[in-house]
Amino acid sequence: MPVTTKYIDPLIDFAFKKIFGGDPNKDLLIDLLNALFKGRKIIIDLTYNKNEHPGDSEHEGAAVFDLLCTGQNGEQFIIEIQRAKQENFKERALFYTSRLISSQAPKGNRASWGYRLTEVYLIALMEDTTLNDESEHEFLHDICLCKRDTGKVFYEKLGYLYIELRKFVKSSTELQTDLDRWLFLLKNLSSMDKIPVYLRKPIFEKLFSIAEYSNLSKEEKMSYDSRMKYKWDNENVREYARKEGLEKGLEEGREKGRLEGKLEGKLEGKLEGKLEGKLEGRKEAAIKIAGEMKSANLPLDQIARFTKLSLEEIEGI
User: Fold this and answer.
1) pTM tops 0.90
2) DSSP letters along the chain, please?
3) Per-residue pLDDT tens for 132-154?
4) Which of 68, 127, 278, 289 is such that its CA lies 20 to 30 A from the CA of 119?
């Protein structure tokens, strides 16, 4: 399926690695990470590592990261792209970071090592999934180990940055910080046809040049197109499932309504029948008593008060 946009979608795994995943472009990733850390941490340089981290034994599967890199002070960064909702995503993040932490232990002489751990961070760029928290507008979640009662940070060297792009809804006129500009780019690059004035910075101009579809090699275009087709197919499947679920729910609701209506009609019919039967039985008894009282030559008004029948009904007996 041919591409229909001038720039590639950076949230496709191939495109993200093309833009951010190589030494010639590491200045782009450094700038993005520094924007995310908001000055709390300054990254000067990065070294890219293999994205597959083997298990401790041959029976234990490898952890495969989207991107894994190391900072100038030995800190490690896992960068993950999460497009659709995935069960146990938080657990997967914990598993990944625990792998990097445990791998720091030397094979021998652990006592002299003294558990001097370097920092480990996981950065998750989430397109369609959320953390299911209560905030409707908080798109950046900076998470660490802290005391439950006071919120005071307990351990600084392990952190998780979750970015919910669905909640980032700023327009181009509302962009104030470099983080705003980065998130706006990640979310909207594939729908642009030129570099807008508000993104005229060397770092972003470089990104636009790398991300231009026409600048990809033939093999890169084939890889990108196949991943885009996979994305479109998945979205079509999800949309079909959503519609099917909605239509099924509506039909089930209609069927439930029909059944409830039938049941209600039956119940009402039974109740009305019983009530009518009782009323008719009572009236027949009243007429019988009125006839006996009339035969005894009792006054008609007295018979009416006793039986609750009208004078006309009594006279007709």
Assistant:
1) no
2) ----SSB--TTSHHHHHHHHSSGGGHHHHHHHHHHHHTTSS----EEE--SEE--SSTTSPPEE-SEEEEETTS-EEEEEEE-S--TTHHHHHHHHHHHHHHTTS-SS-HHHHTT-PPPEEEEEEESS-----S-SS--EEEEEEE-TTT--EEEEEEEEEEEEGGG----GGG--SHHHHHHHHHHHGGG-SS--GGG-SHHHHHHHHHHBGGGS-HHHHHHHHHHHHHHHHHHHHHHHHHHHHHHHHHHHHHHHHHHHHHHHHHHHHHHHHHHHHHHHHHHHHHHHHHHHHHHTT--HHHHHHHH---HHHHHT-
3) 776 778 999 999 999 999 999 99
4) 127
